[in-house]
TrEMBL record:
This is BnaAnng34390D protein. The gene is BnaAnng34390D. It comes from the Eukaryota. InterPro entries: AB_hydrolase_fold, Peptidase_S10. It comes from Brassica napus. GO terms for molecular function: serine-type carboxypeptidase activity.
């Protein structure tokens, strides 16, 4: 659990929050997920799911961390590229009300 403690310290560090453009006073103390949730379903890859919803006409937003917080963005980019979609627009910051959100 030491690693989880370090993550919590990192996420609550003011310098880190500033680097991530978290506006001061907008977020309280960050805590890791509740690991006691009775959940045991796991999949090897989510690529087929994303391919299926895309072929069905649905749009989706994928960002690093929506499947596994330990997955670096390069891994996310690699599996998105494996879908062989046409690139419509370059990667760019995601903002909400002029706040960088991702």
């Amino acid at each position: 659990y030491y690693l989880y403690y370090l993550i919590e310290c990192w996420a609550n560090n003011e310098r880190v929050r500033e680097a991530l453009h978290v506006k001061k006073g907008t977020k309280g103390h960050w805590q890791r997920c509740n690991w006691t949730i009775p959940y045991d379903h796991d999949i090897i890859s989510s690529v087929p799911y994303h391919m299926n919803i895309s072929l069905s006409g649905y749009r989706s937003l994928v960002y690093s961390g929506d499947h596994d917080i330990t997955m670096p963005f390069l891994g996310t980019q690699a599996w998105i590229k494996s879908l062989n979609y046409s690139i419509i627009d370059d990667w760019r910051p995601w903002k909400i009300k002029d706040q960088i959100a991702g």
